[in-house]
Amino acid sequence: MRRIFLWFASTVSVVALLFGYHTSLGGASPVTAGGQTAISGSASGDHSRTTSGNGSGNGAGGSGAGGNNGNGGSSAASSSTVTGDVAQTQWGPVQVELTVASGSITDVSVVQYPSGNGTDEQINSYALPRLIQETLNAQSSSIDMVSGATVTSTGYLQSLQSAIDQAGL
Amino acid sequence: MTAAEVVPAPARRRVLQVMGTAVSLAIRGEHADGPLADEAWAGAVRVLEEADAVFSTYRLDSPVSRWRRGELALVDCPPEVAEVLDLAEQARIESHGAFDVEYGGEGALPDPAGVVKGWAVQRAADLLAELPGTDFCLSAGGDMVCRTAVPGAQPWRIGIEDPRNTKRLVATVPVWNGAVATSGTAQRGAHILDPRTGLPADRLLQVTVLAPDLVRADVDATAAFVLGDRAESWLAGRGRTAVVVPAVGEAVVVGGGESSVDR
Fold first, then answer.
1. What is the pTM of this model?
2. Which residues of B, range 19-38, sit inside 8 Å of A by Cβ?
3. Which of the residues A16, A119, A121, B182 has the least number of beta carbons within 10 Å of its own beta carbon?
4. What is the ipTM of this complex?
């Protein structure tokens, strides 16, 4: 089955870490004990503590951690700003703001993926990582998740991931 | 926006705060939402919360905390405690001591936390994997399990954070089925100690490992980080695909084994 991979070129823009912005939101569960949060939704799904969104909207349910400032950014040919939840870390609150253009996060991803071989894709589990040679003014493709140094950058990832989640990318 | 029909269907997203981190789910396909999805998510949440309740060393009354204080025998702990400690011991042996769960740098109390997260997230992912015709990526603080069940599915596109500039990525990797884990010192300075020397591991900034499951990816990333200069050869010897970012120099891709699509 031949499939076409079309990645939207997206403009490179701003991903800003905003340290020191504090909100007094209980839902954010500051990790005062050094990383453990007390938040634990019930087994059946506590909607006040989980959010779910889709590609066209923001997480209207809210996580109680800074509100949902972002709109989906799904409208064509426009860019929008999505603000991630404030992430409480033992080093202080962290919040990320990013701009989404044409459904893609900008500034973080610069290579275009190879379309690959459809047969191989189904046999293999993952491809070789592709190192990014340039960081600016290059074609971008959207990403689904970010892998980073856990614990250390939890706050940032949490915030970035929340922005991704809210953008529904 | 043109040719919308070739755009991958947007994934549904769910987020949960647990185990001191954010757990994010991206899910698409037949049961991206609806009752089965809700049920699987509830099960996954339960797995993570139970793991936190049992293993948390920040909760003084957790079984692991009580065991560490000598108040509870291992045989009286929930059986998964011994299971996780076995995984940790296996990791210690395979990494020649680079991964040592009994080394915490503070009093040498055993803390299986280095294994628990990967183990718990993998278990949660296994529940989600029972959803027919459904692709998902479950991430906990940057370590994740990816799965595609739909024939011809597009891979999950994983960006690997640049430890020198966490606003950027150092690499990207498409993952159909497998786990991705990253260990490093981003934003906090050296925090991973070499259990063999007690000194901070400082030759590398970050190691990202791809593996069939998250326990192995997570443990190998930590062990490789500690191994420093020997990380690349050690990972290659284990047949792992990885991205190693040294303290000095450019990022390096390790691997190219059976699991790789291209070179």
1. 0.64
2. 19-22, 24, 26, 33, 38
3. A119
4. 0.83
